[in-house]
Amino acid sequence: MYETNYHKAKSLQDAAALLSQADDGAVLAGGQTLIPTLKQRLAAPSDLVDLADAGLAGIEEASGTLEIGAMTTHAEVAASEKVQKVIPGLACLAAGIGDPAVRHRGTIGGSLANNDPAADYPAAMLALAATIVTDQREIAAEDFFTGMFSTDLEEGEIIKSIRVSAPERGAYAKFPNPASRYAMAGVFVAKTASGVRVAVTGAGEDGVYRDAGIEAALTADFAPSAIDGLDVAADGMMSDIHGSAVYRAQLVKVMAKRATEAA
Amino acid sequence: MSDGIGARTKRKEDKRFTTGRGKYTDDVRMENQAYAAFVRSPHAHAEVAGIDAAKAEAMPGVIAVLNGAELTGDGIGNIICGWAITSKDGSPMNMGAWSALATQKVRYVGDAVAVVVAESVAEAQAAAEAVEVSYKELAAVTMSDAALETGAPEIHDNAPGNLIYDWEIGDVAATDAGLASASHVCEIDLTNNRLSPNPMEPRSAVAIFDEAEDHYTLYTTSQNPHVARLVLSAFYQVAPEHKLRVIAPDVGGGFGSKIYIYPEEIVCLWASMKTNRSVKWTSSRSEAFMTDAHGRDHVTTAKMGFDAEGKITGFKVDTIANFGAYMSLFSSAVPTYLYATLLSGQYDISNIHCNVRAVYTNTVPVDAYRGAGRPEASFVIERMLEVAAREMGMDPAELRRRNFVQSFPHQTPVIMAYDAGDFDGNMDKAQAAADVRGFAARKAEAASRGKLRGLGYACYIEACGIAPSAAVGSLGAGVGLWESAEVRVNPVGTIEILTGSHSHGQGHETTFAQVVADRFGLPVENIQIVHGDTDKVQFGMGTYGSRSGAVGISAIVKAMDKVEAKVKKIAAHQLEASEDDIVIEGGEVKIAGTDKKMGWHEIGLAAYTGHNLPDGMEPGLKEGAFYDPVNFTFPAGTYIAEVEVDPETGTVEICQFTAADDFGTLINPMIVEGQVHGGVAQGIGQALLEQVVYDDEGQLLTGSYMDYCMPRADDVPFYTIEHNSTVCPNNPLGIKGCGEAGAIGSPPAIINAITDAIGAEDLAMPATPQRVWAALQAAAPRMAAE
Question: Which of B150, B238, B290, B572 is 20 to 30 A from B277 (CA-CA)?
């Protein structure tokens, strides 16, 4: 890796200040993407601002709504009794991210800010209509994800927490890429007060998206069989050495069914 | 003897490995340590127009920036392939020049053009990035069949049409006649997928030039340090042999990829001399993907004829082998004498013909990888038998049984003479252990869960214990393939065994000690195995091709014979008995049937004090031997895979995997079974997961574990392993070898099981979920129409 200046922020304000003083600073959340990228010399930030001691970890619950600190690790979300009680599908999703090492270092805020097109959390956030709370404002998940590795976050803006409410029913099913174990198709299905929301990760060429066809089918009948006759189009699906667009479309359909079954 | 031959002795070496105290090449740190970083081509094919190192040379910590012109100017020779293959028209193979640092042209992504030596790894890497190389890009070709097409970019001037050789074996006319007489001919097209070896420890080199002594030492990740020294000295002229010490300390896996002498090791030695510093280079995982020799990469069409009873009438095979950009050390032998000579499988076939074309492409060199040629042969034969059985409506096991070789020795039409085996017995054991009779019920139960269950066989045979030196010499090998050993009995009666075999995971420190313990009755703790250092062991050919048991241990046995003879003479003299009455029993040397005896410490002391030895006997107790095998050995077995396919996603689960192997005498069944586990895991990797992919421009798309899928624990099942040993008649202990069998026999068994499950034969390896699903979609209309 290239040389970089490491800072450990004491608070969110401290982090923002450190970041604003840096030539080309980067926020270090869990580092599960950033550190390998640095090691491969694919990125060369002048400064790393570590949020580990910024007081951003922890999970609060109030009347069916969770407030998850940005620095909460996947393992903490997976093991949290509050999450398991309020949104079991989210705890289950977190338990299936990466491997144990990733789950104990990687954080929900880091994952969302990175918005990897095959990451799991974005599907849950979008399907559950979560709110991403930053040091400057609140952003609806709908507006937050703006394409592959791209979000609505402004330069220097840092995620503070995620606010997410329990759906009536909801679950996630993913088909992992055999090599990376990232989602080749991950579908979060949620029946919420505002209607059925189905979000897909891993498959779309613009990153996480809502599938209107599956939503319509499940709105009519929230049952796996409702998806059977559905034709999920390959248009707009990613195609790479691991899976064609046609195959990803098939996986989206099957994962949507399995998520509905589990919901 | 509790730790003798056949005991499941715990591995002596594992204390240091499991507690993180192994000593690997990268653990070597010299006082004047400098570090190398290579400047590598980002292009698959380009002319090197110029190298400007001025900026890099001025960077902090940089000691030197060296290039290929300087390397060749210093007389460092080109890298060579050590096995000469002659084309069927009598012409020699077309070996293109391979300089350790490319001079005029680069031929694959990762081809090194310069090296930076600096005070730290970071400074070396930074400077390597600052070396400005101007390239004139050329069109590239990566697939072997495309490389043979008219108009394909030519990679070496002396290999027109990218053809290295066009070689054949067997009688083409007789084979054609055999096929013409058949009542059924089965034809298949196969690709044997290209694999990246991925040993856990990446390659590493520490080169130490001692100016005062004009002497070099190279610590390196090698499976055969003596061969490395020989080649570095005789062909690359780095240093004469007596001025070069090569040490391969603990080595974390090789699988073939650490047989070869790569550019980096040569360059480190030379750079050490140029800079008068110790120079270290350790490959990153990214560099390993890019530069370690790959395996397999065959494209094959094959035809097999059968008479009305299912007896094979002829077998004709045409293979194109991708050699990558340069001919690696043993590359030429892999698709010829390690592949086509095994095409008779376990079967009595009168007529076989195989044609092999080896071609250059703009990819990293391809060479031997666990099994080397034999997995490719096994895949062709065993897919063929299974497909043919299905086409003819026969039970695939029965079709195999009808064609099994029944008596030994058996001469095949493709050189090999099988010495011993029990192919029906292997099949019987495998079928019983796999409960083949219960398969129909298991398939029905799976169907009730919406899963497609299938069962597949593979009856593999391989040639190990390479090899009789004169025989391989007559076939083009540049070296003899014997092994050496030295047995040193110390004055206190402990024993050191010096062996030319090299352990890089195989457990030699335990199994070799067990052989000595068995013979001399000493505990394994009293026996030390010494290997991997050219200053300690006189010579050796190293470890690959499952040869260490059959050849390496045989050399130890031969040396022990000599030690025993001398021990008996000493004991007879001291105990005043006849030499013929002396026996070695229970760790003691005694007069048979009496209580007159000497311990090994007394024998050792007598030998080394020399106070009372027979007239004319030299003091000391140390004997050496060279063992040259008289034949290959032929491990064989039956593997049965049972899988379930999820038709919605194409996911394959291996439900059970049964191996019934004939490895001859087993020294340590626990270690043997570990070899089977590892080999089958690698075979599962090939069958389901692993595939090197280059794009059309020659960029490596599978350059990390994000895209190259190695088997993980949850990808492999629990294995059922049976042994059906017949003793090899051609070496002293009857050993056949077990290191590669798992990787050879498992891919066809798994693909046969999947194709059985899905009812479609057109399925390439790796059978990824996407491919299996697509094969099911393609087969669905046919199944509906049936």
Answer: B290
